[in-house]
Amino acid sequence: MIIDKKIVIIGAGFTGLGTAIKLLKAGQDDFVILERRPDVGGVWLDNNYPGIACDVPSHFYSFSFRLKPDWSKIQSPGGEIQEYLRECAEEEGVMPFIRFNTDMVESRWDATAKYWVIKTSHDTYRCKFLLTGAGHLADEFMPDIAGLDTFPGDVFHSARWDHSIDLNGKRIGVVGSGASAIQIVPEMQKIASELVVFQRSAPYMNIRNDHAYTDAEKRTFERNPEVLEHLRAWIFWFGEEQYAQRRMVPKYIEDAKNVAMAHMENQVADPELRKKLTPTYQIGCKRRLSSSSYYPAVASPNVTVEATALARIEGSKVYGTSGNSYEVDALVFATGFEAVRMPFTKRVFNAEGVSLDEHWDTGMQALDAIAVAGYPNLFVIYGPNTGLGSNSAVYVIEAQVDYVISALEYLEQNQLSVFDAKPAAEEQFMDHIHDVAEGTVWLDGGCRSWYVDERSGRLTVIWPDFPHIFREELSKFRPSVYELSA
Amino acid sequence: MKSEAVDKTIVVDGVNISYRTSGPVNDRLPLVLVHGTAGNIDSHFGFLFPMMAFRQRVIGINLADPGTETIAIEQFVAQVSAVINAEVPDGAVTLLGYSMGAPIAAKTAHTLGTKVANLILVAGYMKTDTHQKLRGHIWLSLYKEGNPLLKNFMSFNAFSPFHMRSRSLEDMLAGTAKMNVTPFLAKQAELNTRIDVLAECEELQARTLVVGLSDDFSCPKHHSKAMFGTIIHASYTEIATGHAVVHERPAELFYHVNRFCNDPECYPVGKVVPAPKP
Ligand SMILES: Cc1cc2nc3c(=O)[nH]c(=O)nc-3n(C[C@H](O)[C@H](O)[C@H](O)COP(=O)(O)OP(=O)(O)OC[C@H]3O[C@@H](n4cnc5c(N)ncnc54)[C@H](O)[C@@H]3O)c2cc1C
Fold this sequence. Notes:
Largest sheet of chain B: 9 strands, mixed
Strand order of the largest sheet of chain B: 1-2-4-3-5-6-7-8-9
Structural class of chain B: alpha/beta
Largest interface: A-B, 27 and 21 residues
Shape of chain B: globular
Bound molecules: flavin-adenine dinucleotide
Mean pLDDT of chain A: 97
Number of strands of chain A: 22
Oligomer: heterodimer
């Protein structure tokens, strides 16, 4: 069946749902959300590993237009965030617009008819505007490990946790020491007979300032909305202050490093282990983490930190690049996501049949971090240069949704139906981004991270300026940088 | 985007004034920063100076003890004017004064006329009032008797209760212990008890952004509101912190300073611009 819609949205995470809510508020209801999974939530549906929680305080890691006075904790568990998103979808009337279990297989721009043709695992859609909210941390990354097929035990990725497997009393290997791993490791330490953590590079970590809110505190937020607004602003501007560190202002780098190192030294007594846990790059180059339970967990007698990457597997024996080997019964890959080359980009084609992935062969880029020259009427949300080192992703997503709404309004008011980024404007915007990125810790911090595209050495995932500058500059459609036609 | 800072000195009335310049020359007016009581470039503008210097030319001044028994505000005005004239011989500047630096900046703008095209007055005041006189009286009495509680009194007045809530008493006391109480600081405290730049503010023509702080116990926001009313081309905004905005929320201060320097029209004359809601 072919279904016509004005707008098709891919994905029902923060982006897809936030867009839908704002479209409905703007009086637009000719849209559909295609979601390959059976429920809303995006990363918060996929990631349900033990210990999962957000690392930006919940009162800020939520929609500005749907505050939730009763978050259970400062940084709430993942399941609660997924429930919050479901509640948003239900109460804002978005559920009827979502087609679940529907995989977007191919999207193609038809230059003659001036619409997108979208093939899915079910129907085909035709729409004027395509909006991708497919996430840059939506598809898990599994490293290619020699001998993995010989491993007789249980193996899964952190984003596809297999809850049917009982890990109690097993010898467990966790591969990775990033944001997911540091939440998983303390939980595995409690149940494993032995646990080995493969750490390619040590992360910087701060105390996790977390506690459960009392009923009285929740009522205080509910009865005094201004208290909640004040708290949100406080969290936000604190996050903004951290940008000075990413900008490598020496005092901020020193302070941040001292705080992180003091935290480690408070929690780890063994000098050998401290050495393994001391990062070798500049703080902030990779995501700064927060945990009060990770160091105590890895300092426990049943845990070994293998301070090299997982190199190969021979049966139940797993080897680090150091040559050290360990016998394990189960392997958890907390190895992150395909953020630099988002898989959905292999499925989006321009009129000449070139996929976004091919088009971005030296790294992804978009005008105003949202539009791609040669791919008309496409909004890529939370794509290139939208990741934040120091604040909530929802803040950026909301700015981008405002951009979309203002674009649709502008086109309608001026009886235009097609926009396409001017290539020169896109290049100019990217030159500006790369100019700002120069000298930041993400490029000069001496680490290898998924923020940088190895093919070009450019910072393609991260927004390199203050997050508030993103909202200042990129939450409103700029007609002058587009070719516009009826 | 990189910015190297250069430290320089200039002699004013026989005294060495140190200052710092940094940042690219572009179509923005150079931004000149004047710190407040007990401050210097690093302690009051440790965030604002380098972060603005990534976007434009910035000049920070360390006010110096003129060596006289007491200080007249004119002596500080002379120091600021000298740096401006030396560093920006042609064209205009944006001048920012924080705390005691605000009346100094206002008076400098009055003296230099159109040279100061834009003015930013953060947590300032035009005329010492009874609340501030009483504070000054306590301050100077504690100083004269060498009372160690003086430092605690200073931080008690500097930070908002909300900010303190996220710290322990030990943290607050440890922070105050680092403060340096010098004879120069006592002279600043004494000057603060007799500030009066009301007449100058009434005549100011500079495009002015007044930034009041909602929980300021040193220069409560009614002073900023009065400046907003007095200065003809003024606009007003507020940040939800105590007097020490430069420590409590430097990024929100940066937000306003950066916007105003980029385009003062973002702050329409006569209007209160609400705080951004993130
Ligand atoms: C474990 C984890 C913790 C995180 N914690 C934080 C945090 O604390 N703070 C923070 O700011 N950010 C955090 N993030 C970043 C997070 O990605 C964003 O905050 C935000 O959730 C992104 O929302 P999204 O809707 O853009 O993408 P996603 O949540 O990734 O949603 C994308 C959706 O698109 C669907 N989809 C993808 N491709 C297709 C297709 N071809 N067809 C149909 N559907 C498709 C997916 O199934 C998914 O539902 C975290 C990410 C992870 C993985």
